[in-house]
Amino acid sequence: MNFESILAHHVVDHKTSSHVVAVVGGLPIDLGFSPLIRTMWIACVVVIVALTFAARSESSLARAMRSFFEPLALFVRDQVLEPIFGHHAGHYLPYFLTLFFFLLTCNLLGLVPSMKGVMANPWVTAGMATCTFGLIQYAGIREQGFGSYVVHIVPGGVPAVLWPLLFVIEVFGMFAKCISLCIRLFANMLAGHVVSLAFICMIFIFSEMSKLAGAGMIVPSLGLALFIYAMDVLVSFLQAYIFTFLTALFVGGAVHPH
Predict the structure, then answer these.
(1) SS3 label, residue 147
(2) Is 99 exposed, middle or buried (0-12, 13-18, 19+ CB in 10 A)?
(3) Domain of 85?
(4) Measuring CA to CA, which residue among 44, 28, 48, 39 is closest to residue 121?
(5) Measured between alpha carbons, how far is residue 211 from residues 169, 198, 199, 203, 204 in Å?
(6) What is the pLDDT of residues 66-106, one digit of tens each?
(7) Do 15 and 34 meet the contact criterion of CB atoms below 8 Å apart?
(8) Which regions of the chain does DSSP assign to beta strands (E)?
(9) What span, in angstroms and rounded, lies between the C-alpha atoms of 18 and 32?
């Protein structure tokens, strides 16, 4: 049993078709369809359909769905955004609700056997972190104006001679925050897949030594793997919250520089 190939099959993207639309700097830009992209599209459709149905329908199923979605949406608004953004929270609420529910849906879909672990792929989390970086710049310029935003990147009261050096440091710090977002989400979502697979692989490892030993490992290995799987459901909610909260915190620093 090849542990590496099984893990790579679940989290690494494998294109099922190729469609090169341009070549930039000698590198092809390939927009071919892949299982990872398919999973993200499914997540988008699930979020749009589920939230629209829950908001607009008056059926008993919709009411049950509202009782699940509404507390999550209110939590993001009241406990995450309003303490950070204050009266600006309403303007950024649609983005952060979309971010939270998209991350949550992708994380949960990653636990479905036929789906890809989307957020366990570093390129996807890098894309999410890039969106955060772009939102920081947008929010800072929108709320302060371009000139004021650039000036306030460096804390006030800094001697003029040190301002250029501290400006470079602060800009690098801004990049570092987004990189940490990327790595944190990727590492935490990958860890659950690795640990669950490791427990299952123990059955085959012990079977190589003895068929009896392999049979004896079935129950404990599957039990531990199911426990980690259940924990991954909790981690899916937790990591969606953490990414959303940290993004709000970083963006809020641009909205309220003081």
Answers:
(1) helix
(2) buried
(3) 34-255
(4) 39
(5) 59, 19, 17, 10, 9
(6) 999 999 999 999 999 999 998 888 899 999 999 999 999 99
(7) yes
(8) 20-24, 27-30
(9) 4
Match 């259940």 to its residue by tokens: 230
**Its pTM surpasses 0.90:** no
Task: Find residue 1's DSSP bridge partners.
Answer: none
| Distant-in-sequence, close-in-space partners of 255: CB < 8 Å, separation ≥ 6 | 85, 88, 139, 140, 143
Number of domains in the chain: 1
Residue 18 lies in a domain: no
Question: Mapping DSSP to helix (H, G, I), strand (E, B) and coil, where does residue 45 land?
Answer: helix
Would you say residue 139 lies in a domain?
yes
Query: What are the pLDDT digits (tens) for 117-169?
Result: 788 888 889 999 999 999 999 998 988 888 888 888 887 777 777 788 888 88
Q: Which two tokens stand for residue 177?
A: 């925050």
DSSP string computed for 65-117? HHHHHHHHHHHIIIIIIHHHHGGGHHHHHHHHHHHHHHHHHHHHHTTSTTS--
Residue 12 belongs to a domain: no
Sequence-distant (6+) residues with CB within 8 A of 108 are 233, 236
**126: alpha, beta or left? (left if phi > 0; alpha if psi -120 to 50):** alpha
Residue 133: inside a domain: yes
Q: How far is CA 155 from CA 40, 150, 171, 176, 217, in A?
A: 39, 11, 12, 18, 58
Place of tokens 């972190």: 129
